[in-house]
Amino acid sequence: MNKKLWTLFKTCFIISACTFGGGMVIISMLQKKFVEELHWIGQDEIMDMVAIAQSCPGVMAVNTSIIIGYHIAGITGAVLTMFGTIMPPMIILSVISVFYVQFRNNVIIALILKGMQAGVAAVMIHVSATMINNVLKDKNILSLLMLIGACAAAVMFQIDIVFILIVCGIIGGISVWLGEKGGTQ
Questions:
Q1: pLDDT tens for each residue of 60-77
Q2: Is 21 in contact with 123 (CB distance < 8 Å)?
Q3: Which of 118, 120, 140, 122 has the alpha carbon at shortest distance from 130?
Q4: Measured between alpha carbons, how far is 41 from 7 in angstroms, rounded to an integer?
Q5: What are the CB-based long-range contacts (under 8 Å, 24+) for 92-95?
Q6: pLDDT for 117-165, tens place per residue?
Q7: What is the pTM of this model?
Q8: Max Cα–Cα distance, the chain, nearest Å
Q9: In angstroms, rounded to a whole number, what is the distance separating the alpha carbons of residues 53 and 91?
Q10: Could you tell me if 15 and 30 are in contact, meaning their C-beta atoms sit under 8 angstroms apart?
Q11: If you ran DSSP here, which 8-state letter would residue 22 be given?
C-alpha cells in the first residue's frame, strides 16, 4: 500500500509541476497515468470523476485529484493527491512572487508563455474529443442531445457553465430514476 500511496503523491506532484494550461490539461495527464498506464481507474469512471469535480466549487484539477486519490486509497489517498497537486503551484508562485518585477518585464518569459498557448489548446481539444467520443460510444440519444444542447448553450448563448452542468445533471438524474422505476436499468 505504501508504494501505491507514494505513486499517487508523486504522480500528482509531477503532473502538477510540469503541466501548464489549467484543469483540463492536468486532467488529461491524470487520465493517461491512472487509466491508460496504471489501469487503476476505468475510462468511464474517470469521466464521471471529472464531471463531479467540475460541478464542485474549487479548482477542477485539485478536485479531480482528490476524487481519484479517494477512489484508489481512501482518505489518505485523497489527502496525498491534494497535497501533490497543490504543492508545485504554491512553490512556483512563491518563487515568482519573490522575483515578480524581473518576470513582469522579461520579453523571453512573455514569449514562452505565449508559445505554450498552442500546446495547451491542443491538449484541451484532445480531452474534449475523448469526452465526446465517450458520449457517442454510449449510443444514448439523450446524452447526445444533452451534448449538443450544452455546447449550443455555452458557445452560442454564453450561458454560465454551472447552470448548464446543473441542468444536465438534473436531466441525467431524472433519466436514470425513470429507467430504474421502469425496470430498464
A1: 888 999 999 999 999 999
A2: yes
A3: 122
A4: 14
A5: 92/17
A6: 888 788 788 888 888 888 888 888 998 999 999 999 999 999 998 899 8
A7: 0.61
A8: 65
A9: 24
A10: yes
A11: -
Amino acid letter, residue 183: G
Distance between CA atoms of residues 2 and 118, nearest Å:
38
pLDDT for the residue numbered 184: 52
Q: Exposed e or buried b for every residue in 126-144, given b needs 16+ CB within 10 A?
A: ebeeebeeeeeeeeeeebe
Which three cell numbers, joined as nine digits, stand for 133?
467520443
User: What are the residues whose beta carbons fall under 8 Å from the beta carbon of 68, sequence distance 6 or more?
Assistant: 8, 30, 34, 41, 46, 49, 77, 81
Nearest CA to 41 out of 64, 18, 58, 19 is that of 64
Phi-psi region of 21 (alpha: psi -120 to 50; beta: other; left: phi over 0): left
C-alpha cell at 153: 448553450
